[in-house]
């Protein structure tokens, strides 16, 4: 019987979720779900200096918002109190210190690890010398040769120490990576890695091996930056006599100039993309394609399709360019397909934030510039104007601002279509005014507006652009905007006529 698929996402609580970490989490999630396995959330907080208050709660909230439900791990309640679910806990490494100490003692006892008493000053000097000689910075093994008596004397004196892995000086360490294939690294190039720090906390290398084994992780899917550390982990598995999981390392994320994607908060934080109005499903679709090839021309997938189609065989070896234009394109596709009610609900906070409207009640709003009261259905019509054009939700305020002001401001030259004269533009606006004034308020719909004005153009022999361009500018004040019929229906008869009047005045 084959081993059950179990993957884990094991981030450090350092303040925000990097978009590269989101990709790692998503690939682990997809691989587990595709294979009817378990996806686990574990917190790796062995580096106390990097811990940021509230980051665990924030991480859980974002994974939940993104729809990445895990079988086991850290959870929070409605008051953001941290607890856990599952039978393999604790799922926070700082709660597992006794476990790590037990396994470190075992390694020392079996001569797979040793105490190192070197001071930080000595280590710094050693590395400086190695760099001067253009050598790879590695521990020189000074404490590796200490006999048991010397070690005990130093321990009795309470000399600060770390515990290091005793890497074999000969032979090679080999493993099959599910992305990069067979990897073979000479042991002499592998450092005697620190396993336990002087404060009693394990390093990543020890903790993740122990945890992955005890939590029965079948596949370790992580970033390419961990590839050079994998031989150390393989050696640890061998030292413990444990079967190693299968490894898959994901390609680097790159800036358009091929440099490694920045880790500065504000550049690549998932929260920032969500705050800008990228939809969670669009962001997941985007990160899916950052390193995975569906082997077809398709680029837009439903959540269910992603689970069904994903396999590690489709992961690329080459780094992936993080292209925000592609993200915009994907997000725009998702926005176009959204239910209008749902899209409007998501857009309302941005309209409030840009101070165009304020909420009066759960279904009523007020236009701030005119104090006019409007309802949700009206806002739905406003949002519909931009549903086909919007790349991200945060654009809605600027895009539809013209709806919420009394009269838009613009230069009169904007009213003139191509080689038209100002006089011609003015005459066409006057004809438009006369026709629309006759239309009854109850018949004021997009289709009726179009029918009336098409008949006017046909009757008077006016070209489409010569009539509709001045009208659209008069209504919106913009060079690029939704069509005049759609805008006219949303504004209503009174506002449309008032804005046309302003355009006529400007052209006199």
Supply the number of helical segments.
19
Helicity range: 40-55%
Identify low-pLDDT runs.
Answer: none
Radius of gyration: 32 Å
How far the N terminus sits from the C terminus, by CA atoms, comes to 86 Å
3D architecture notes:
- There is one protein chain.
- Helix 2 (55-65) links the parallel strand 2 (38-41) and strand 3 (72-76).
- A 4-stranded mixed β-sheet has the order 1-2-3-4. A 3-stranded antiparallel β-sheet has the order 5-6-9. Strands 14-15-16 form a 3-stranded antiparallel β-sheet.
- It folds into 4 domains: 6-93 and 253-324, 3-Layer(aba) Sandwich (Rossmann fold), CATH 3.40.50.620; 96-250, 3-Layer(aba) Sandwich (Rossmann fold), CATH 3.40.50; 338-404, no CATH class; 412-506, Arc Repressor Mutant, subunit A.
- It is elongated.
- It has helices at residues 19-34, 55-65, 97-109, 120-132, 148-156, 204-214, 230-240, 270-275, 280-288, 303-309, 324-336, 340-353, 376-384, 396-399, 422-438, 446-460, 464-476, 484-491, 493-506; strands at 6-9, 38-41, 72-76, 82-85, 113-116, 162-165, 172-177, 181-186, 194-196, 219-223, 246-250, 253-254, 320-321, 357-359, 364-367, 373-375.
- It is an alpha/beta fold.
Present the secondary structure layout.
Layout: E1 6-9, H1 19-34, E2 38-41, H2 55-65, E3 72-76, E4 82-85, H3 97-109, E5 113-116, H4 120-132, H5 148-156, E6 162-165, E7 172-177, E8 181-186, E9 194-196, H6 204-214, E10 219-223, H7 230-240, E11 246-250, E12 253-254, H8 270-275, H9 280-288, H10 303-309, E13 320-321, H11 324-336, H12 340-353, E14 357-359, E15 364-367, E16 373-375, H13 376-384, H14 396-399, H15 422-438, H16 446-460, H17 464-476, H18 484-491, H19 493-506
């Amino acid at each position: 019987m084959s081993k059950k698929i179990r993957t884990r996402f094991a981030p450090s609580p350092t303040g925000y979720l990097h978009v590269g970490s989101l990709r790692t989490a998503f690939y682990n999630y997809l691989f587990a779900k595709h294979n009817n396995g378990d996806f686990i959330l574990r917190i790796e907080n062995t580096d106390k200096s990097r811990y940021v208050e509230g980051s665990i709660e924030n991480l859980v909230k974002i994974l939940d918002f993104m729809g990445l439900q895990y079988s086991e791990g850290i959870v929070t309640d409605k008051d953001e109190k941290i607890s856990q679910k599952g039978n393999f806990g604790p799922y926070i490494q700082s709660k597992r210190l006794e476990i790590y100490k037990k396994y470190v003692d075992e390694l020392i006892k079996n001569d797979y690890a040793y105490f190192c008493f070197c001071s930080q000053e000595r280590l710094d000097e050693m590395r400086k010398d190695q760099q001067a000689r253009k050598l790879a910075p590695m521990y020189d093994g000074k404490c590796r040769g200490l006999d048991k008596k010397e070690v005990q004397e130093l321990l009795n004196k309470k000399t600060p120490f770390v515990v290091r892995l005793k890497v074999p000086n000969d032979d090679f360490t080999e493993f099959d990576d599910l992305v990069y294939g067979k990897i073979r690294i000479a042991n002499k190039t592998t450092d005697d890695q620190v396993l336990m720090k002087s404060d009693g906390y394990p390093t990543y290398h020890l903790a993740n091996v122990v945890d992955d084994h005890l939590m029965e992780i079948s596949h370790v899917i992580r970033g390419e930056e961990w590839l050079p550390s994998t031989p150390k982990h393989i050696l640890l598995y061998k030292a413990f006599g444990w079967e190693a999981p299968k490894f898959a390392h994901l390609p680097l994320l790159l800036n358009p100039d091929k440099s490694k994607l920045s880790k500065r908060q504000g550049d690549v934080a998932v929260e920032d993309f969500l705050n800008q109005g990228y939809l969670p499903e669009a962001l997941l679709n985007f990160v899916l394609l950052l390193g995975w090839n569906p082997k077809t021309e398709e680029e837009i997938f439903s959540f269910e399709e992603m689970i069904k189609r994903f396999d590690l065989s489709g992961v690329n070896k080459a780094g992936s360019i993080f292209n925000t234009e592609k993200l915009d394109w994907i997000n725009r596709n998702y926005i176009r397909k959204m239910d209008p009610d749902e899209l409007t609900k998501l857009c309302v906070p941005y309209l409030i934030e840009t101070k165009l409207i304020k909420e009066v009640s759960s279904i009523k709003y007020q236009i701030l510039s005119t104090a006019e009261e409007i309802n949700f259905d009206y806002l739905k019509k406003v949002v519909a104007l931009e549903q086909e054009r919007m790349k991200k939700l945060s654009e809605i305020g600027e895009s539809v601002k013209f709806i919420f002001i009394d009269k838009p401001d613009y230069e009169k030259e904007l009213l003139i279509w191509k080689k038209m004269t100002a006089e011609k533009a003015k005459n066409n606006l006057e004809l438009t005014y006369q026709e629309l004034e006759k239309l009854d308020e109850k018949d004021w719909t997009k289709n009726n507006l179009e029918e009336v004005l098409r008949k006017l153009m046909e009757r008077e022999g006016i070209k489409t652009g010569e009539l509709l361009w001045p009208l659209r500018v008069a209504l919106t004040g913009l060079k690029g905007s939704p069509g005049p019929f759609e805008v006219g229906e949303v504004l209503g008869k009174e506002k449309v006529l008032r804005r046309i009047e302003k355009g006529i005045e400007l052209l006199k």
